[in-house]
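Q: Sequence in, structure out?
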Amino acid sequence: MVCKLSAQMSARLLIIFTGLAFQTACTPSDNTAADSSSAAADTNGTGTDAISTGQDSTATADSAVADANSSPDVPPFQAKCTTDATCKTAQVCEFGVCVSKPSNTEKLNLSNPLQDNQAVADKVQLGCVGETTADLAKGVVGPAKVTMWGRVDRFGSGVVTADVEVAVYELSQFHPEACAGIVNTDAAPDAIENCMIDESKVGKPLAKVIAVLPNVDKPTDAAVVNGWDVASAKKADEQCNTHLDCPLGYECRKDNGAVANICVAQHGVYAIENVPTNTPIVVRVRGLPPNKPSWHDSYLWDYVLLANRTDVKGAGTQPTKYVGTDTYRVNPTIVGEGQWQLVPTTMGFNDITDGNGVIGGRVRDCGVDGGRGGFAIHNARVGLGVSGQGIAYFNDSEDNTVPVKTRGATDLIGRFAAVDVPAGPNRIAAAGWMDSAVVSLGSQDVYVIPNALMIVTLPGHIPTLNK
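A: Exactly. Output:
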């Protein structure tokens, strides 16, 4: 197999790269299927799979060409391989990254995120492999701006994700490299984090807002006052069967020893007006005092809100304030300190080095044009251009975030997490076995931000609800 460096890709090998929510699709199909059924809360992708090591190659690097969407000052990732022969034994070269060679006994299959991630017989769609956010947006017609809204998902356990800040940057105007070389010290323990929120250095966000508690049955709560609540058949503490039964920001759980499942508040909700469509963006979620020590900053990297995938207009699919306007649901994710420590220690690694980061996300197919969005891909293998301590994979349950040490490919939910990755330019790529051959599942460039979770989904860049 020859490394996937097509003429199309060689002209754009710097899309600064993550999900986890890891949630995206790669088709201009309508976004309504997910949003119409998800006015109730959906659950975050928090299960975990196994770790594989040795995914890097020491082969001579090719020069990468800066992508038109990328920040021009960010140094490009340098490809690590050109053909399979320049990788180690039992690896394949995918878009300049050496990936553990998929096994013909682990064939690719899909699960439906709107049916509790049940395996389905749909054919894996890979027509968008190699396309960028700019490719996906070409010729797309629709509103120039939308209200982006949703809940703040949580990777792992922790407190309700209210009182965290959600900020949106245009990718081309976001400059994390401005903080390169800054380190935390005893005298300045938050030096890196302070640099990353310095708008004179990294750039000014298009907008930012603080997520609020989701309680929809109390008119004095911020979600209702702000008009960010969504009509739902259930209310807080009512009995339920699935997460989708519950209001926005709630999950269907047994709480405090209850016999039956009830709708329990789990996630803060937010809305940001005037977010541009058809434009590569970065969405940052960061903790604020007094709960700041409980969180690590997270970045949804290189997303695009396609103008032809806006929400179905109506009370059950849009926040109260924005019913009848152009809206687009996106559930960004934040990671708790406990989860930050759990993954490496469970896998037998050291703690994540101060100044390093994590790349996490999901592998999804491209969906069907005019039909379904991207479905999670099971049995995909992931490789990293600049490796960390290893790659963790998970175990088919959204609510289980403990890695499975014996697993070397994605679970039914398509999840992965590359742990303790050096800060700076990087590229992630994936491959799998389909029919009778190894197939490419795309790649994504990313600038790893220190002490943060970078979220990406291969092969597409479009936010898609995981439930």
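Residues 337-346 form the longest helix (10 residues).
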